[in-house]
Amino acid sequence: MAFAKAQKSKAYFKRYQVKYKRRREGKTDYRARIRLINQDKNKYNTPKYRFVVRFTNKDITAQIISASIAGDIVLASAYAHELPRYGLEVGLTNYAAAYCTGLLLARRVLKMLEMDAEYEGHVEATGEDYSVEPTENRRPFRALLDVGLVKTTTGNRVFGALKVIFKFIQTSYDYINGFSTTLDLSDYLLSILTVLFVFVNFLLCLDFRVHWMVDLISLTVRRDLLDSVRIVSNLTLKFTVNTSIVVMSLPT
């Protein structure tokens, strides 16, 4: 087996700059991280909190983290392996366990900030849409969801942990599995008009493609017919000339 010669020069390796360690290990998406931790300059030293959810084979980790120059600071954390003391013995990595872990973290953060009495959350489980409204004293605690490298598909377990965090975070329900907000008449009509518009555009494009194909086929057929007529005309002319020559050559 022949070995290929290294094409990179000495200057390449002298100027090579390695990436961050967690990028080399495939653990951190720094493009997403920089957008999660950047804070507006007019907010000075106000911490920007992230709601970090991570899954392992046997556990779920939920944390509230803020970034600083010295490093990330964890405000509070909750784990799925703590759930057995509250009665949940098995299934510590499923959607329900993610919900319970998020609930445990939410209550801890509110109690730590002395906001648990002011924001009790959704006490009665009615299944209706619920969002936190600011009170007269303190505004609700806010954090940004940090999913890491997880694909944010609809119904992912990470949104199970987020669903219960709605007790103190205002956000959207779009990625919650099995949830659909009630539409009023205007939204319903708008959705119908949007579908009709897309369908009409599809038909117009399809009609254009059909006409284009028909024109192409007819052009090809006409060209083939003209070629055939030209060939037949040439053969007829040759046959007539040859016949005339033969007739002239015959003895009278």
Automatic annotation (TrEMBL):
SUPFAM superfamilies: Translational machinery components
Keyword Transmembrane in record: yes
A Pfam short name: Ribosomal_L5e
InterPro entries for this protein: Rbsml_uL18_euk_arch (IPR005485), Ribosomal_L18 (IPR057268)
GO molecular function: 5S rRNA binding; structural constituent of ribosome
Cellular component GO terms held in the UniProt record: ribonucleoprotein complex; ribosome
One biological process term in Gene Ontology: translation
Record keywords: Membrane, Ribonucleoprotein, Ribosomal protein, Transmembrane, Transmembrane helix
Coiled coil: none
TM annotation in the entry: 188-206
Record bears the keyword Protein biosynthesis: no
Gene3D superfamilies registered for this protein in UniProt: 3.30.420.100
Superkingdom of the organism of origin: Eukaryota
Family the entry assigns: Belongs to the universal ribosomal protein uL18 family.
Name of protein: Ribosomal protein L5 eukaryotic C-terminal domain-containing protein
